[in-house]
Specification:
Blueprint (H helix, E strand, L loop, with lengths): L2 E2 L2 E2 L3 H25 L7 E8 L4 E7 L6 E6 L5 E6 L6 E6 L7 E6 L2 E6 L14 E7 L22 E7 L8 E2 L35
Antiparallel strand pairs: 1-2, 3-4, 4-7, 5-6, 5-8, 8-9, 10-11, 11-12
Length: 213
C-alpha cells in the first residue's frame, strides 16, 4: 500500500480485506453489547412480615415504575389490604394495622405487573395443611388441560374459561362446606416468579411436581 500526497492508494483486494475486517469487528461489538447489557430488574415484593405483638403487617417492594399507583391484596382471598404510591426510585412501603384476617401470602399489582410474597410469621403459613380453605381450579377445555396438582395452572387465551370452587375443609367431625361468592372471593393474575422465568412454549416446560407438560 503506497501513499500519494498523504492519501491511501490501496489495491482493490486490500480494500476488500479492510472492509471485511471492519464488518467483522462491528458484528463482534454488537454481539458483545447485546449479551453484556444488564437484564432489567423485575418488580418484587422484597419484604412481608407480620408483627403479632403490634398487630401490624409490613410490606415493602422495589423495582416498580416510579409514580405508579400500587394495590396490595391478600393473594388467597383477593381482599384489598391497601393502596400506595411508588416513589421515584421504584420503591414503596405499606403498614397494614390490625387487618381483619392476616394473609399468608400477599400480591402487589401496579402498571399491569404483579408480584407475590409469602408473609413471614403469619399465623397460617402459605400451603400449610392447617389452612381452612381449599381451592380447585379447572377450565372448559377438558382433561387435556388438566394437571394433577394446582401449583401450576395453564390457560389458553383468548377463548378459555377459568372456573374455580372454594371449599371450607371439615374439622372436628363437621362436613366440608362448598362456598359461594358470598363466602369467598377468587381472583387470578399472571406474574413473573422471583427468577423472572417467562414461558413462551408450553411443550418446552414441565410441571416439576408431576412431570407433566
Amino acid at each position: 500500500m503506497k501513499s500519494v500526497f498523504g492519501l491511501s492508494t490501496a489495491k482493490p483486494i486490500e480494500m476488500a480485506i479492510l472492509l471485511a475486517l471492519s464488518v467483522i469487528i462491528g458484528i463482534t461489538l454488537s454481539w458483545t453489547n447485546a449479551y453484556s447489557a444488564p437484564k432489567p430488574k423485575l418488580p418484587t415484593v422484597s419484604k412481608a412480615n407480620w408483627n403479632s405483638r403490634k398487630l401490624v403487617l409490613t410490606v415493602k417492594g422495589r423495582n416498580w415504575g416510579g409514580g405508579q399507583s400500587l394495590v396490595l391484596n391478600d393473594a388467597i382471598t383477593g381482599e384489598i389490604l391497601g393502596t400506595t404510591q411508588v416513589d421515584l426510585r421504584g420503591k414503596w412501603q405499606m403498614a397494614v394495622s390490625n387487618p381483619a384476617e392476616v394473609p399468608c401470602r400477599v400480591r402487589a399489582s401496579a402498571g399491569g405487573q404483579s408480584a407475590l410474597r409469602d408473609v413471614k410469621k403469619a399465623p397460617v403459613a402459605y400451603g400449610s395443611a392447617t389452612s381452612s380453605l381449599a381451592t380447585f381450579a379447572f377450565n372448559d377445555l377438558g382433561m387435556h388441560c388438566y394437571d394433577s396438582d394446582f401449583s401450576v395452572f395453564a390457560i389458553l387465551p383468548p377463548f378459555n374459561v377459568l372456573r374455580a370452587q372454594v371449599v371450607r375443609k371439615g374439622s372436628g367431625g363437621t362436613m366440608p362446606e362448598i362456598l359461594d361468592s358470598l363466602g369467598a372471593g377468587v381472583s387470578y393474575a399472571a406474574f413473573l416468579d422471583a427468577n423472572g422465568a417467562q414461558i413462551s412454549c408450553s411443550l418446552c416446560h414441565e410441571n416439576p411436581l408431576n412431570g407433566d407438560h
